[in-house]
Amino acid sequence: MATYELSGALFADMVRGGTDNLRANAQIVNDLNVFPIPDGDTGDNMSLTMQGGDTAIAGVASDSISYIADKLAGGMLLGARGNSGVILSQLFAGIAKGLSGVERADATALGKAFQSGVKQAYDAVLTPTEGTILTVAREATEYVVGKLTPESTLEDFFSAFIEKMHESLQHTPELLPILKESGVIDSGGAGLVYVIEGMNKILHGEKVEATAAPASVAASAPSLDGFTADSKMEFGYCTEFLLQLQNSKVDAENFPVETITEGLTALGGESIVAFKTGTIVKVHVHSMTPGKILEFCQQYGEFLTMKVENMALQHSEATVENRFAAAPKPQEHKAYGVVVVATGEGIKETFRSLGADAVVEGGQTMNPSSEDFLAAFDEVNADTIFVFPNNGNIILTARQAAAMYQKSDVRVLDSHSVGDGYAALTMLDTDSGDTDAIEESLNAAMEGVITGMVTRSVRDSHLGGMEIAKNDYIGFAGKEMLADQKTVAKAACELIGKIDMSERTVLIAICGKDATREDMDAVRAFARKNCPDVELFEIDGGQDIYPFIFVIE
Question: I need a surface site. Which of 79, 94, 163, 357 has the fewest CB within 10 A?
Answer without folding.
Answer: 163
